[in-house]
Amino acid sequence: MKVILGCDPLLAPLTGIGNYTQQIAKGLASSKRVDEFKLFAHGKFFSDDIYADNKVDTVSISNSSTLLAQARSSLAKSELAVSVYSKVVPLIEKVKLAGYQDFVFHSPNFILPNFSGRKIVTIHDLSTLKFPQFHPASRVKFVNAAIERAVKSAEHFITDTEFIRNELIHYFGLPPEKVSAIPLAASTQYSVKSEGACTQVLSRFDLHYRGFFLFVSTIEPRKNLMNILEAMEAYASLNKHYFPLVIVGGKGWNSDAIHTKIEQLQRKGVVRYFGYVEQHYLEVLFSSAKALVFPSQYEGFGLPVLEAMQSGTPVLTSCDSAMSEVVGQAGILVQYEDPNDIKLGLVKLSYDDEFVTCITHKGLNRAREFSWKKTVEKTLDVYEKRA
């Protein structure tokens, strides 16, 4: 089997899709099922070293591809960039990919090139279609147009969960046999750590082992933080010996009101906001928290819930969601739009030790069902399917 993987998510500091692309690339490159493997983005083939580390050496990227990558990053701000990109790049792609029709092309992030061979596309979620209010208008326009083009030209589709698979089938009327749900996995760096192993990092943040709730994500409206903060405020009013909420994540789009509320609760001691935290500290926080609080309004998978379970930490997340599919019976499921329901979950996590022990063990067992090796093998199975 010959495979070309779209590698544009690797040309910047890794996000969730970048990490997914990196793991798929590593798995394909080492698989005996793959006879020839190439990486392609912005009209250019790249060497294998771009997925070896978490950061890309941008000096090694040619000027032409760098300019195209910059154009892509400007799409959320410039209608002109959208126009230039949509006209120029397909012409370059057609020339560069000519002669590779015997390869399978897999795009890991919804954008397919001008390629006449077999095309597979991963669509992680339909956020810009279902909740356009959560994104800048120009981003919505660009992403939705790219997804609609992919739907018309791809031979097969991959999603991270059955939840998103069903949405994709319903939204576009796709034949169910053309869409496969393949779960993600958490890094092996997320693991159970003893209190002693966490003490040094926790002292740096003035935290105690199992003495805080944790929220990890970019701060933006769809993460449901306003309802989480309202629930935390109500929860803290019940007992002076409450667990504070530690929030880890950078400032995202349209988050000023959320940050104002965070600052108010910080002054009361209900919340502590750390912003960006280095990876090796984050792993300790995951393993040290009383629970992960992640009742997001919408996710394609919700990787933090799996990272928490794998770290031996209980999870509170949204029912009837991609996250509830990942968690299964190993967590507390709440109505994300109901602060009182979230509050009740926080209370149970605080005082029902027997329940917490039970879902912690269930979470560890559930987490063992996920691995990047399984993700890669199931992805290869999709490549081998014929339309």
CATH T-level topology of the largest domain: Rossmann fold
Instruction: Return the average pLDDT rounded to an integer.
Output: 91
Kindly report the name of the CATH homologous superfamily of the largest domain.
Glycogen Phosphorylase B
Number of domains: 2
Q: Could you tell me how far the N terminus lies from the C terminus, measured between alpha carbons in angstroms?
A: 16 Å
Just give the CATH class of the largest domain.
Alpha Beta
> Which structural class do you get from the secondary structure elements?
alpha/beta
Please give the radius of gyration in angstroms: 22 Å
Largest sheet: 7 strands, mixed
* Order of the strands making up the biggest sheet: 3-2-1-4-5-6-7
What is the strand tally?
Answer: 13
Shape: globular
Protein name: Glycosyltransferase family 1 protein
Pfam families: Glyco_transf_4, Glycos_transf_1
Keywords: Transferase
What's the topology here?
Elements: E1 2-6, H1 16-30, E2 36-41, E3 44-46, H2 63-73, H3 79-97, E4 104-107, E5 118-122, H4 127-130, H5 137-153, E6 156-159, H6 162-172, E7 179-181, H7 195-204, E8 213-216, H8 225-236, E9 245-248, H9 256-268, E10 271-275, H10 279-288, E11 291-294, H11 303-310, E12 315-318, H12 322-327, E13 332-334, H13 339-351, H14 353-367, H15 372-384
Parallel strand pairs: 1-2, 1-4, 4-5, 5-6, 6-7, 8-9, 8-11, 9-10, 11-12, 12-13
Antiparallel strand pairs: 2-3
Helix pairs in contact: 1-15, 7-10, 8-9, 8-13, 11-14
Keywords: Transferase
Domain Glycosyl transferase family: 212-353
Pfam family, one: Glycos_transf_1
